[in-house]
Design a protein that fits this description.
The chain is α/β, with parallel strands linked by helices. The strands form four sheets. Strands 1, 2, 3, 10 and 11 form a five-stranded parallel beta sheet that branches. A three-stranded parallel beta sheet has the order 4-5-7.
């Protein structure tokens, strides 16, 4: 915890480990079959994040694609050796609502096997690519519980053009009545009736004061904040995708050079730790807003 951290609530600091060409914004313009032919930057960028965290004396959770772990097992070991939590981000960034329950089950198993082999530790946390567990996937939490996951941080409780579950609880909840699985949504700022995203590109593009406000707002309720970003967000030198839509390019490339400094400031202003440590102190509520879960074949 930084010496000038404010308040007693430990917040969850998390990194979604994926390369610049694997992001949702480019999924329609970059074919997965081409991934191995593109210039990789995920290892150098994740190492830069590890250095930033070491300098800030903070630990975090790295939600990592199985695809990345299969190609960079030494990076996975460096994450764990530095004292961070390793968790799953699925195999290849396929959104959960595009899968059948059986496909999701296979995706979970494939990613977990590679992550655990690389790291030598058990994987108990999961984050869906692009926060794609929502009202369309009433079976997803049941699959996670059946696979033995302790928690998920896969819900964005707001409306967004790429993702979101506006009716989901804002704080930690148990999505199933007969399982210990906890869902810990990413933090949003509540402004009247409106919820605003505060992590990733929103933190990069908007004033840091919005994220500070959201952290203090949820901490005032005695709840932990959950913040996320991606290693490619601190890499202004990454390749440009010329044929991507203008909106996607603006979202992806804007203010990359400012991100590392903003992260250092955010880490210094609040108390941060691994998500599994946050889960230990969570007070999850029943999910009255969530649809009943049904496991399908």
């Amino acid at each position: 915890m930084p010496p000038d951290a404010t308040g007693p609530v430990l917040n969850g600091l998390s990194v979604d480990v994926e390369d610049w060409f694997q992001v949702g914004a480019f999924e329609r313009v970059i074919d997965k079959a081409d991934w191995d032919s593109l210039a990789p930057r995920v290892e150098r960028n994740t190492d830069a994040v590890l250095d930033l965290f070491a300098q800030s004396e903070v630990r975090a959770t790295f939600f990592t694609l199985g695809w990345v772990a299969a190609r960079y097992p030494a990076l996975i070991r460096r994450i764990v050796d530095a004292g961070h939590e390793l968790a799953s981000h699925g195999w290849d960034h396929r959104r959960v609502f595009t899968m059948t329950p059986a496909e999701f089950r296979a995706d979970l198993a494939r990613a977990r096997e590679v992550l655990e082999q690389a790291a030598g530790v058990a994987i108990t946390g999961y984050r869906a690519p692009s926060f794609s567990i929502d009202a369309r996937t009433p079976w997803a939490h049941l699959e996670l519980a059946a696979a033995g996951y302790a928690y998920s941080s896969s819900v964005a409780p707001l409306a967004h053009d790429h993702y979101g579950w506006p009716g989901a609880p804002r704080y930690a909840f148990r999505p199933l009545t007969d399982a210990a699985l906890i869902e810990l949504p990413v933090t949003v700022a509540q402004l009247g009736a409106r919820r605003l995203a505060t992590g990733g590109g929103f933190f990069r593009l908007l004033p840091a004061a919005l994220t500070d406000f959201a952290v203090r707002q949820v901490n005032a309720d005695g709840q932990p904040a959950v913040f996320y970003f991606h290693p490619w967000e601190i890499d202004p030198g990454q390749p440009r995708v010329a044929h991507a839509p203008l909106r996607s390019k603006l979202r992806h490339y804007s203010r990359l050079g400012a991100m590392a400094g903003k992260l250092r400031g955010l880490i210094a202003r609040h108390a941060w730790g691994r998500v599994d440590s946050v889960i230990l102190n969570a007070r999850p509520e029943p999910a009255a807003a969530a649809p009943p879960a049904r496991r399908a074949a």
